[in-house]
Amino acid sequence: MLKKLLSFFATIGTALAIPTPPxxxxxxxxxxxxxxxxFYCHGQDATKRKAKLRLDTREGQLxxxxxxxxxxxxxxxxxxxxxxxxxxxxxPANSHRALTLAQKETLRRWIAEGASFTPHWAFTAITRPTPxxxxxxxxxxxxxxxxxxxxLESEQITPSPEAPRATLIRRVSLDLTGLPPTPAELxxxxxxxxxxxxxxxxxxxxxxxxxxxxxALPWLDAARxxxxxxxxxxxxxxxxxxxxxxxxxxxxxxxxxxxxxxQLAGDLLPTPTTExxxxxxxxxxxxxxxxxxxxxxxxxxxxxxxxxxxxxxxxLGLTVACAQCHDHKxxxxxxxxYYSLLAGFNHVSENxxxxxxxxxxxxxxxxxxxxxxxxxxxxxxxxxKLAAMKSGELIAKIRSDWEAKVASDEKFPDPxxxxxxxxPAKDRLELPAxxxxxxxxxxxxxxxxxxxxxxxxxxxxxxxxxxxxxxVMDDNQARDTFILDRGNYEAHLExxxxxxxxxxxxxxxxxxRNRLGLARWLVSPEQPLTARVIVNRYWQTFFGxxxxxxxxxxxxxxxxxVHRALLDWLAAEFREGGWNTKNLHRLIVTSATxxxxxxVTPALLERDPENRLYARGARLRLPAMMIRDQALAVSGLLIxxxxxxxxxxxxPADIWDSLAITKERDFTYPQSTGADLYRRSLYTFWRRTVAxxxxxxxxARNTCKVRTAITSTPLxxxxxxxxxxxxxxxxxxxxRTLQATSSRDRRLEHAFRLVLARKPDxxxxxxxxxxxxxxxxxxxxxxxxxxxxxxxxxxxxxPTLALAEHAAYTAVCxxxxxxDETLTKS
Amino acid sequence: MNPLSEAHLQLTRRQFFGRAATGIGAAALSSLLTPNTLxxxxxxxxxxxxxxxxxxxxxxxxxGGGPSQVDLFDYKPGxxxxxxxxxxxxxxxxxxxxxxxxxxxxxxxxPALKPFKxxxxxxxxxxxxxxxxxxxxxxxxxxxxxxxxxVNHAPGVTFCLTGSQIPGRPSMGSWxxxxxxxxxxxxxxxxxxxxxxxxKTCGQLFYEHYWGSxxxxxxxxxxxxxxxxxxxxxxxDAPGLDRAQKRALLDDIAxxxxxxxxxxxxxxxxxxxAQYEMAFKMQASVPGLLDVTTESPATLASYGPxxxxxxxxxRNCLLACRLAERGVRFIQLMHGGWDxxxxxxxxxxxxxRDTDQPTAALIQDLKQRGLLDDTLxxxxxxxxxxxxxxxxxxxxxxxxxxHLGSAYSTWMIGGGVKPGVAYGETDDFSYNVxxxxxxxxxxxxxILHLLGIDHERLTxxxxxxxxxxxxxxxxxxxxxxx
Lengths: 826, 482
Fold this sequence. Notes:
The structure holds two protein chains of two kinds. By secondary structure, chain A is an all-alpha fold. Chain A has 35 helices and six strands. Chain A has a two-stranded antiparallel sheet. Chain A has a two-stranded antiparallel sheet with strand order 3-4. In chain A, strand 3 and strand 4 (492-496) form a beta hairpin. In chain A, helix 18 packs across helix 19 (415-422). The longest helix of chain A is centred in the middle third of the chain and has 21 residues, at 296-316. Chain B is an alpha/beta fold. Chain B has a single domain (50-235, 276-480), classed as Alkaline Phosphatase, subunit A, CATH 3.40.720. Chain B contains 14 helices and 19 strands. Chain B has helices spanning 3-12, 23-33, 35-38, 69-72, 89-92, 131-134, 153-162, 172-180, 243-264, 267-290, 297-302, 313-325, 344-368, 440-450; strands spanning 57-63, 116-119, 124-127, 141-147, 190-196, 223-224, 330-336, 375-380, 384-385, 390-391, 399-400, 403-404, 408-414, 421-423, 425-426, 433-435, 438-439, 460-462, 465-467. In chain B, strands 1, 4, 5, 6, 7, 8, 13, 14 and 17 form a nine-stranded mixed sheet that branches. The termini of chain B are far apart. The model of chain B is unreliable at 1-45 (pLDDT under 50). Classes of the chains: A mainly alpha, B alpha/beta. Chains A and B meet through helix 15, helix 27, strand 5, helix 29 and helix 32 of A and helix 3, helix 7, helix 9 and helix 10 of B.
């Protein structure tokens, strides 16, 4: 009966099918359906597997008569998915998954056509596809465009015209350096009529030190870089030393394979340089839990898991965390694979404990001591001074005299301290003894001998808070690695040794079985994922979405790329071209695809809302860090200084301490003064427990994040309208404008052009003129309001500028900084 | 305005505050039009709530640090006879301890510091330290058999609020607003307030990930209402810029943006125009919300004297009621101060005094405003505390209890929960659950259920996986439902 019913459905299916549809493609059409609906119980994880059936391999599919090629009506899979009987229907009701009729029909047709099987594309070797032939040869600047245009031509969509030059220079300047063009740069480019003007512009931008600062941003998100540990006292770290390493590596265009090897395993290279050891701080950017009562071994495993997950997501585009507890449900990653990979990170001389209980800085071994000769001389001088004073003996004497006095002082205010002081040292219990010691050093010594106290304080501050110690990697501790039962650090199962996931090409026989072997393997020519994953992320940087939308996941559940051939071509080009990152970026931004106008018509928007066919240029809201940098740049406030300690630009005054319910450290926000208020956002101190308030939509920097969603909420509007950063920038921009030229219209045009790199049109001019008039009238009527408005921010005001006029222009400039076009690269 | 952007405007106007829109529904629709924002949302299904909800909103009264169930909720009269006797090792063997006591050599039993008494018609035994909460005993759904996997604060709180001990997943409030959207017109749908004991006796921080949105879009993260400085970050206009001027300026921004929209056609521009408008409205609605002088003296008095101090737990309870009234979906109060390792003897009473009356007043106030029936109020911390003493019991101000994850108590009241029950049981030492265990994931599943959500079906696709609040665990506990 059922078979009959099925053939009935099959007939309907055939009857309804569009004449000569293209054959069903396993990778594109079938596997996503199976992965989403079937692999949970019929996939890789043997412990969850039902009816001993697996559908993720060819052998599995053909077993149990689940799938009989060319015979859908005889295939059990088809019987089950079309069944309506509770005990037969697949997927079962309690799975909360259901196939649509169209999906069922796809599966039926796939089997009818022979049930072709291809392994998951991303796990197969990268071969360089030939760029396709196109009709409109003239449109093509480089091979990227062939892939894009061929598809557009097949869809009968015309690409958009090239964006106006002013738009183009703003777009590419923001993309490559994170900053808008200066008026001079804009003028030069607009005036440059040579055929390679754009290419030379791109070369100039790629050579700018600002390039490394901009390109570091997504890498810092992926590396979960922050300047504090993220727990309890949220101790500061010196990981910014690694951040500077990244900017430098990007600016010097270190080949990506070397960039990878040094960060993952620089310490294991033969005679590693200091720089190469600093690079390994990548692996030490994780959270560190120094909570009282934390169990060190548990915390050490939390760190290990994080390292494995970060490495897998960042380079392999794989989510392996599931395999902590069990074989992966969808991807061919087993629990054994997971712990074999973890073994590569398990020899660090760390113990899960965070050091530095009395300091604002908290780090965990191993660290690289980067105290300079000056630091060391400072320290030696202090120590010499203390030695000359015989400080040890002196303190001991002061203390014993004081204790004797306290013991006999019946009026001493703290009875507990007194009681302890009265006991001989050997009879004191640990806790009261500690309290006594603390009392002496905090309350007594500063009074009895301020000089020694000062020197000791200085010594402590320099040693613990000032002298940089970046947390890095080593392989100095031999440990056995075990598969952990359900990821429980206390439940050891089988012992494993380091290995790469078995479903991917193996480590070369002579490769070292450690992190260095892993790092080299990640960038080896045979390894199919790294190149794809990385070029996809760079594409995402420029176009908002990657060619594979799920840039964090290239597994079988990943988004099926529209332009797989383009991705593979780029990956091959990148790898075979020596992993040259700047070349890859140049290739992308000089393509016709990139240079298109981002204007969109309703028809195109409906046809391709996500712009995955690239019939137009990208139009995206800028990341919050770039919005701030742009405001500083156009107002002339930006201080372009490369690298160094984090800085503390404007934040709401109580931003840190209002969330701290601890007295264990001072959480006053140490706002910078002078130039450090105007550094690029990259250098803003990133406190994990309270991220900078004006960096909306940013990664929290707790775990590896390779894709951030752009959202739009009223809170963002409040930030760019009311944050002193933007109000001060508007004031500086207004002052700059007032000083530049004298007529109203020229001034409005000047400010507009500084912000948007184009001239306002007639409508815009009209609105701006009216806006200025309204603001001027109001501020003229109330000079004290103008005065107050102009006091926001530390930069002194030029008192020669007329008050009301300066205020009115400031208001208009604030509006300019808040335009959709300003907040967007288009 | 071109027809496309007009259509888009209709769809996206309410994404943030959205009276009519549901998070997934509206977001899924809008994602068709705003590719670079919300595309990933379409992976989830529509149709929320999954079934009729008993509660429309949640007030989570988070008691950070781990309130002692031994002293407050889990009545064990037999302990008195065992005072300072050693806790049998067989009892302790099941539970992990923090390293603060795991090396302790002795584990003397310390019965509840203050006597318990019976409350209400049900005669529920609760501590005499919480008489006001006790006055609602017959409506409380007390859970005495909670279990968690964490032994330390941050992982413990993160586990309860996000379903994972490691930061990075969406918090409960984010899940709910993502699933159900907002009922509030000009306020965020997920609001957070923090407070702590005045002396700040404990060492924890409130981490932003406690109300973060993890990998779902950041518009679903909690918005913190602050008691110092600006109530919402950057809410106040620049000094010297008055409302009329600001209005004019926003109109000019909107004019320029509309002009761009007509030329460029990007629906994102339209969303931006709407969000600036809502920001302006919010600048008026937040001060209105915070102006508690509109409450009657009797109402104010019911929350206790602390209500007059901005940033106190009492004030936050009152604001929670006002937020509920204004349709905010998820209201998360975070109160610190329960981590009483060595100061239970001095601090427990103070902590109860600070929280008992305001908590009870909130319940009463919700009832009076007709909101309790569809508001779920939850009182919970990240774990409980050990029956054995930590520190020196002979010192009046030098002892307390360590963390305990293997058994603790929480309670709920209001929308859809079974009133007047005491669910689950622990052993004689309030140390291990012996009947009806409620794992954190069960607790989460049950909360979602009360909001009309099947916890297995509220999912978000990320990293190739459908994530959910309860990970792959959790079951709804019918014994907690009305």
